[in-house]
Amino acid sequence: MALFLSPGKIGGMTLSGDIQRAAERLNNKTTLLVSSGAGISAESGVPTFREAQIGLWERYDPSQLATPQAFQRNPDLVWEWYRWRHKLISSVEPNGGHRAVADLEDLFPVVVVLTQNIDGLHAIAGSSEIEELHGNIRRYKCSDACRGEPTLIDLTTIPYDDEHAPICPFCGAHVRPDVVWFGESLPRRALDRAFQLASQCDVMMVIGTSGIVQPAASLPVQASQNNALIIEVNPEETEISRLADFCLRGPSGEVLPELVQAIRRLRHQDGKDPSS
Hints:
Blueprint: E1 3-5, E2 9-10, E3 13-14, H1 15-26, E4 31-36, H2 38-42, H3 62-65, H4 68-73, H5 75-90, H6 96-103, E5 110-115, H7 121-125, E6 130-132, E7 135-142, E8 175-179, H8 188-198, E9 203-207, H9 218-225, E10 229-233, E11 246-248, H10 252-270
Parallel strand pairs: 1-11, 4-5, 4-9, 5-6, 9-10, 10-11
Antiparallel strand pairs: 2-3, 7-8
Helix pairs in contact: 1-10, 6-10, 8-9
């Protein structure tokens, strides 16, 4: 049965006290997976998919822009929209939740981030093992994958502007963002690794995701079936809550730093703190 925790007191318990109990369960684990969704980045001010539809873009349906067919019909329009979204994302910084996830690498032998986010904030915060299941808006590739999938393109090496999709220097096809569009499959290597790790991990921490977007929503199920400890960090109840051993109800930028500090205190008491 999940232990539901929320800010303030519930049944005489406090969120901090329950974070301490979660830390105690985590203390002797070795392989930690972090599955993150839009919620952790929303705390940094990253607009959601539909929130980016402002100004000139209000009249467009984003689900009709983020498709291979839309790019084929009008590559410049789709390129311009993604360059607009890139500018929105470029103005934000990782928050305490992202940084705490990176700090977990000092405490566990294996920490891998499985993220549905395309903003790259986990890497900027310092996480080193990341599988970006939906791609990264900061990367670009040849739309024809002329040298294999993906054929990554460094925009600094080719002429381009924000209003016209650039041309692949290798084959002449248009360059597109390295993100997963509607109707496309997730990167096979990343997805296979994610499910393999989910079947082997000691702990899966699910942060800021509704648990309804497949196939990422199946990762906690896979981990739970293999007796992993499931910790959810989310202000709201989700589809993941019924699987979780701990549901920490609060923003990741507040909950995760406290959880990291609680683990460090335990390690220090045990003489295992790597920073001591």
